Amino acid sequence: MIFVETAYTIVVPDQNLLAQLCGTNDSNLHLIEKHLGVSVFTQGNELSLGRLPSGRISPDTDDSQVIQQFQHIVDRMMDEAAAGFDVGPDLMASILQLRQDGHRCEDFRDCGIIIPGAVRKVYPKTGNQLRLVRAMRSCDMVFCTGPAGSGKTFLMMAEALRLVLSGTVRTLIITRPVVEAGESLGYLPGDLEQKINPYLRPLFDVMNSLLPPGSGKKLMEGGVVEVAPLAYMRGRTLSNSVILLDEAQNTTREQMKMFLTRMGEGSKVFVTGDITQIDLPRRTPSGLVHCLRILRDIPEIGMMAMDSGDVVRNELVKKIVQAYEDSKSEEELE
Fold this sequence. Notes:
alpha/beta, six-stranded parallel beta sheet, three-stranded antiparallel beta sheet, 12 helices, 15% strand
């Protein structure tokens, strides 16, 4: 399709800023073109929308809406670049997906997670992820359920690191039920940290992806980050801390009650789980499923449920999760 003239132009005051907005090999411009369905190009220090031979910008959408979306996308990119953040794939995915989900300009304010000393800023990429970030900011206890790849553990770990590295809380405590070992770790070689590390590897991977090399290990050695199997938390009161429980679907009712009642003054509790992947022995009820039901009417507790639309790991993973969800729905109808 050939565009004969410019339909709308934004002047970028700085060539270096323009290069950031365009991305490597104009990758950002290509994403905006795909999102808007129109040509986006540069002329000098200007970013422009192309016009169709008919004189319109888009054959399917009101031109004013396309211009408004283009203006918002570029403004958001420029704001992040001016604040010193990378205008890369994570930011673009956040801007474009949230716009597609119908979120307004105001919804983007302070939606990112800035971790002191981190290698990058974390952005929610779907409407549910945005609501999860808000829930973690407004509630002291937050539950998030959803399929693999929906961002629940990643966002909760990012917010937990923000809280501890900004000095809002003193300690980050990470725990997970050790179902495979029946919470009995004595036969495994090594000290407690070496015994539990394999089960917490996914959480360490998230931490290492956000922080400079070696930072996670230093935080653990300094006692800022503590790892503990769920069974070892009985009798403790965890104050001025953020406590992250991962894979909570594999807790029993008794374990979940014990964990939730460890919360002390000045603490936040984040709980993640996927209720479609319960590994408990047959006829053992999940503590996560139980507590979601009995705590749902407490307004101070935030509860978020992700679905296949929130999967950002890989398009194929999203399709796999959707297929399982559809299969479950069909079984329930039979």
